Amino acid sequence: MTKAKETSESKKAQKKKRKANKTSFTSETAKKAQKASCESRKRNCSLKEWAKFYGKQHIELQMPDKTKVDATWDGAVVVGLYRSAMAGDSKAAKFLADITGQSPAQQVEVKAQVKHEADLTPKEAAEFIAELDKRI
């Protein structure tokens, strides 16, 4: 056999193989494609989704007094933050204050006296309008 004939026969065999591997689009192939898509989406979760998932997973946490406690990863992170804050880490202390609602920025008190316009006397209304004019 000549080399050209061998090449043309191998090309024909490859073409036949590709043709045999082609599948028509059916509901079965659609289901397989959907399953593959879901698996791919699971592997490509965002950092936020991974954090939510692992934050809820349970672990056994050893406390400073050597007792073991069943906790979540989120709980373990909070324990670590408290340990760091107690060791003098000011960033950990600030973060703990923020997440527990004890941050000074979250404790702003707003006091105001609000009067409805119908409750104003004509003199008070005129003073109010004059004050607004000054600000503009």
Topology at a glance:
Elements: H1 3-21, H2 27-43, H3 47-55, E1 58-62, E2 68-72, H4 73-86, H5 90-99, H6 122-135
Antiparallel strand pairs: 1-2
Helix pairs in contact: 4-5
Question: In words, what does this structure look like?
Answer:
The structure is a single chain. With 136 residues, the chain is mainly alpha-helical. The chain has 2 domains: 6-44, no CATH class; 45-107, no CATH class. The protein is built from 6 helices and 2 strands. Strands 1-2 form a two-stranded antiparallel sheet. A hairpin with a 5-residue loop joins strand 1 (58-62) and strand 2 (68-72). Helix 4 (73-86) crosses helix 5 (90-99). It starts with a helix and ends with a helix.
Which strand order spans the largest sheet, edge to edge or round the barrel? Answer: 1-2
Please tell me the overall pLDDT. Answer: 77
Based on CA atoms alone, the radius of gyration comes out at 35 Å
Give the strand content.
Answer: 5-15%
Order of helices and strands: HHHEEHHH
Helix and strand composition category: mainly alpha
Q: Characterize the largest beta sheet: strand count, sense, and whether it forms a barrel.
A: 2 strands, antiparallel
Helix segment tally:
6
Helix content: 55-70%
Tell me how many strands there are.
2
In total, the number of domains comes to 2
Catalogue the unreliable spans. Answer: none
- Span between termini: 99 Å
Report the principal-axis shape: flat
At a glance:
This protein has 136 residues and is mainly α. The protein has six helices and two strands, in the order H-H-H-E-E-H-H-H.
